[in-house]
């Protein structure tokens, strides 16, 4: 990529960048509650759903997002069968808007409907949320809407919410930044590997589960969590959203506050440019597919969970999680290369997300769009992969290099703003 | 060290070594029960205690072992106060014998009395056991015998045993080799860092804890485990003992089946030389002391838990646990050096204890006394450090190079045997 050092020198606002980094690196976030989405945001309704990524028109949504909306309409009782749900979508009788605009986040398709169960995080200034993780054996976020998936979701939105919220309200407060920092010490990068962090959540909830009058439900919740190594993901990303919100809206700051994709477009928001999305076509990357899956069946990158990397963990702390590399396809040696690269495009180093194998050095934090422009290095993320058709679910995982164009455009916009 | 390649070529029995390695690497071990020591061995009695390390005379025991015996006599009701306990010891009115001879193991002082709570492991051929871990805030194994320590031990031997054994009997079988292998993927080396493995045990026990009629006790047990990052250690070392017993007694095999120390002497047993101990004075190593502790206050290396390294984890898998290095004093880079060194003295590579950061390469397994002799490299272990006086408890942890002399002597004895 061409480097224009003179322009960069003119326009980079180090003080603004450091203000954003300081917010990312110091904001405290606790687990607030577990509830249904409608209890935490007014931006959902029976025919108003949230979705992952930058804005997208209903007639443009990719297959798994369509599958997830079908699932949502069935789950909410707005449609009695798939045909009715499809008619609602095709008739435009439903509104969709980005999770990010509601202070929420959804992994993969990111469809959030009023009664879906969410984990809620809270900082001094912001409340954020993300849907509880359904596992990978059929999941609305991957576009599944079969009976088993919907039955599980109903159970999660009732019994599981009751058991988990009882644990949150009755237990010691859970510092979500600490939870993720501890995960990095236990071999998780906390975006696609969260097995030790999920175990830690079970440990934190266990006293309440044991005390609970809802013994049967609590036992089922504990067993479900134990069998779902991604269960801690919504807790991690709602925390990350609270960090990035704290870093947002700093005048002149080139620090990225959101990376996100809807399966058509990948987009970023930058602190100094507020809510504006800078977009490019969603990438496919080099996924490791599940047996039998074909690369041509894949939906391009989709989901809000890359807020992990935006906040300084996930692929940005991949050296903390060498065991993930065989899951996403790669080597521990490559992980080191990725983290080193990310250091060259970040404005800071985390004092909280430390990487043991790097002698407890902090992970790179605060992607600086000017540095991306200077180096020509775009961020990498760890992500899941959905089939391109509704109802076909998960087909892989991988390490994806996101498109550089949105970063270049944001850098240019900030520079133009500084010049004007 | 001098190398005598000719002698080695004459005497090394590769087939025998590989037979021992195969046993170390293939034996299955499950968690059998949690109970009191007298329920699993007849080698304990009111005045017959087990101790860590090779045999030692009662009038030779180091301070923390004396403290632990005092604690044991008080715990068993054999002495009504410390003075009475000391009189029993000084009068020789108690017998002590090595844990190893009872198929058991004790961390640090390793004193096991009839009513102490133990975790019991079982392979096809052997039953092994080790005392439940009391934590580091006063512990009999570190020589403490204050009221708080004894009250906790009483609770552990009653309520905790009941709750845990209920979980073991009522839950899915726990494969202890898998538990430790998973720990290596979660940043534990499973000798001095077991925090993720302990969390995993809580996860495995949680359904039973939730179902238990003993809710109050179960909640207390879960909380105690959550606060004690070494809780999984006896589960790990009783497993390791079962592995090393399977590797023992192979004619001509130079593979080490026990490393152990009693605070005076460090000793090893070797497969081809049966129950014979080869000993040298216990080393002190380069400990990382707790604040305020002095090097001159330390008890030389003591304990049976270095069976971890003997079985192919602990310091031998230290690269799996970079976060431990700041606990024992060292760097992640040093860890890599240690593991590489250990590869040069081991007869095999584990197919079960895999190290993610080494691209899932197995840990070195099966210390070969001839290789120690050839290379002049003695094994390293991660270990805890006790104060030299009774009742003063834990004062540090460290990485210790064990003495090479017992390995040389064992190699010579095997060679002499082969020649005769």
Note down, in words, how this protein is organized:
Two copies of one chain form a homodimer. Chain A has 420 residues and is an alpha+beta fold. The first copy, chain A, folds into two domains: 195 residues, v583 fold (Alpha-Beta Complex); 206 residues, Enterococcus faecalis V583 domain (Enterococcus faecalis V583 fold, Alpha-Beta Complex). Helix content of chain A is 39%, strand content 19%. The first copy, chain A, is built from 14 helices and 14 strands. Chain A has a four-stranded antiparallel sheet with strand order 8-7-6-10. The longest helix of chain A has 24 residues. The radius of gyration of chain A is 20 Å and the shape is globular. The N terminus of chain A is likely disordered. Chains A and B meet through helix 7 and helix 8 of A and helix 7 and helix 8 of B.
Question: Briefly, what is this?
Answer:
Chain A is α+β, with helices and mostly antiparallel strands. Helix content of chain A is 39%, strand content 19%. The longest helix of chain A is centred in the middle third of the chain and has 24 residues.
Task: Supply database-style keywords.
homodimer, 4-stranded antiparallel sheet, 420 residues, 14 strands, Enterococcus faecalis V583 fold, 19% strand, alpha+beta, 3-stranded antiparallel sheet
- SS class of chain A: alpha+beta
Give me the CATH superfamily of the largest domain in chain A. Answer: Enterococcus faecalis V583 domain
Helix content of chain A: 25-40%
Greatest interface (CB-CB under 8 A), with counts per chain: A-B, 37 and 36 residues
CATH architecture grouping of the largest domain in chain A: Alpha-Beta Complex
Tally of distinct domains of chain A: 2
Strand-residue proportion of chain A: 15-25%
How large is the radius of gyration of chain A?
20 Å
Mean pLDDT of chain A, as a whole number? 94
Q: Quick one: how many beta strands of chain A?
A: 14
CATH class of the largest domain in chain A: Alpha Beta
Q: Assembly state here?
A: homodimer
Helix count of chain A? Answer: 14
Distance between the termini of chain A: 25 Å
- Compressed to H and E, one letter per element, the order of chain A equals HHEEHHEEEHHHHHEEEEEHHHEEHEEH
- Overall geometric form of chain A: globular
CATH topology of the largest domain in chain A: Enterococcus faecalis V583 fold
| Order of strands in the sheet with most strands of chain A | 8-7-6-10
Low-confidence segments of chain A: 1-11
Biggest β-sheet of chain A: count, sense, barrel?
4 strands, antiparallel
